[in-house]
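Dear V.,

Thank you for sending over the compound details. I've combined the ligand you provided, zinc ion, with the protein sequence from our construct and run the structure prediction for the complex. I'm sharing the raw inputs here so there's no ambiguity about protonation or stereochemistry in the SMILES, which I know was a concern on your side last time.
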Amino acid sequence: MSNGLVYVLPSLDGKILLPRQSHLGTFVGPQNQPTDIWPIKILCSENGRLYERSHDMIRREVYPMPDPSQRQVRPWMIAFRCAHIGCGNPYTIFAIEYADDEGERHLRAALSKAALGLCSGHATEVDQDTVEMWWLPY
Ligand SMILES: [Zn+2]
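Below is the predicted structure of the protein with zinc ion bound, written out as structure tokens.
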């Protein structure tokens, strides 16, 4: 595994290698250019909770580059709407998981519990028909 000078974000139990270009922004070269999607909410699939990260927590450092021959952990983007009657609020959250079918299953299992507190005045009900999730390539 080789190291590269990349942009990383602290997670609950380590660091997240940010994609060079994605909905999160452009993280390449001496400048990072986050989009206005920040601060972001990140789903921890271990404990089914959301935690928040802001763009000023991004650091540029030497970090191991993903080995394409290994199972990869990548940032995921998850979009859905609340199914509570009269709500329908759209949400976009992120997660750190394996970039494969098993990772997606973990995230789907954790999503409903983690999303409970997103709406104000009622418990958020994830509308499963609206759930879209995809992982962000480096
Ligand atoms: Zn709602």
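A first observation: Residues 82, 84, 87, 89, 119, 122, 124 surround zinc ion (CB under 6 Å).

Warm regards,
I. M.
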